Amino acid sequence: MANRTAFGRTVVAGMWARAEWGALVQLQPSPVRVPFPVSFDSNELLMEFIDDGEGNAAPRLAQVRPDPEALDTLWRQFREIVLALAATGHTHGDLSPYNLLVAPGVDGSPHGQLVVIDLPQLVDVVVNPDGFDYLRRDIVNVATWFAARRAQADAESLFAEAVAVLY
Predict the structure, then answer these.
(1) Upper half-sphere CA count for residue 148 (Cβ side, 13 Å)
(2) What is the pTM of this model?
(3) Fewer Cβ close by (within 10 Å): the C or N end of the chain?
(4) What is the pLDDT of residue 1?
(5) How many helices (H) and strands (E) does the chain have?
(6) Residue 14 belongs to what H/E stretch?
(7) Among 75, 84, 83, 80, which residue's Cα sits nearest to residue 30?
(8) How many other CB atoms are there within 10 angstroms of residue 91's CB atom?
(9) Kind and range of the H or E element at 47?
(10) Region 103-115 average pLDDT
(11) H or E segment at 156?
């Protein structure tokens, strides 16, 4: 692995795929929407395709330009995701507007629904010595995107809420 041989890359790919599979399976019963894991074999993972309602890949949050009402709705969804992950004792570990998809709302919402992707580094906030730093970074990364679009996105308040959920 350290020498980046073909075998080493295959081992690493398998480790990442296995970790992502575990995270997707673990989060299925939670309120956090993630792609449905379909199958896992060695270093290959097959999961649900999240589309835009027309057969194209759903856009990443970083790609959308929501109006103020949609922006507020998406921020509330993000808050719910952070708190639901915290309720399981976890944070994403590398959350940003690039690994949140905006899919058509399953509840008929015209503003879409956030779907969390890229989960192989799911972090146990309490066990990992840097867990709270990862939690804060995840929140700040996404809150900064929302704040730049003039949403009422208070990263520190959300962090405090998430910590309270953990305890």
Answers:
(1) 9
(2) 0.88
(3) C
(4) 46
(5) 4, 6
(6) helix 6-27
(7) 84
(8) 27
(9) strand 44-47
(10) 79
(11) helix 155-166
